[in-house]
Amino acid sequence: MHKAQSLPILDRYTPGDDAMAIRLHELHPTLIHAPLGLLPVAAGLDLVCALKHDRFLDHTARTLWSLGTLGGLAAGATGLAASQEVKITDQNVEQAMLIHGLGNVIVTLGAASMLGFRAKHRPTITSAFVALGAVAATLFTGWLGGELVYARGVGVKRMAAAQGEGVKDSPELVTRESPSRFLKDVANGFVWAMRGAKKVATGEERLTRRALSLGA
């Protein structure tokens, strides 16, 4: 009996064969857990160190700020890409996705600022509470992201036929097409976000209350 010869994954991989394969738009909800988990812990450790300095906890908090900020940047980039792969037919849902994205940008910028501060200074009571307040904003942006998926089916493949929202032809992640598609989606997602923010800032488009309470 001849032993079966193993083949490289990409050589024997056929798009669509694996129903459980992760798709490009699903990378964002996979990575978002990193900043959502790391940043609150970093802020909490800052508060502990501000009350009673501990070199080990101080070093740990700085490390978590670094990892959490990098995780936020990764989640942000994949979020921009995901915005181009999902299907949206309701303006309220599109506005909610814009708020979700811009809110996460603010959180990530706050984390980066805190990382810069902590690289040179020990935490203080004030800086710790500022960090906790900024991180608390993730509760809202995270909830809104959950509402987009669970209440409106954004990114859910089988929802398109039922109510319009869902997903387009998002490719599987492990394909030759994905890298170029990802970069293109990130660029297009950035343009979409900037245009949406400009419309709101100039009054060309008003945010609706429904955009803030999708599942209510």
Features:
216 residues, mainly alpha, 2 strands, globular, disordered N terminus
Distance between the termini: 63 Å
User: How many separate domains make up the residues?
Assistant: 1
Number of helices: 8
The share of residues in helices is 55-70%
Strand order of the largest sheet: 1-2
List the uncertain runs: 1-17
Strand content: under 5%
Q: How is this structure best described in words?
A:
- With 216 residues, the protein is mostly helical.
- It has one domain (23-212).
- It is built from eight helices and two strands, in the order ααααβαααβα.
- It has a two-stranded antiparallel ribbon with strand order 1-2.
- It is globular and about 55 Å long.
- Mean pLDDT is 85; it is low at 1-17.
How would you summarize the topology of this molecule?
Blueprint: H1 9-12, H2 27-31, H3 33-51, H4 55-83, E1 86-87, H5 91-118, H6 125-150, H7 160-163, E2 166-167, H8 178-202
Antiparallel strand pairs: 1-2
Compact overview of the structure:
By secondary structure, the chain is mostly helical. It has helices at residues 9-12, 27-31, 33-51, 55-83, 91-118, 125-150, 160-163, 178-202, and strands at 86-87, 166-167.
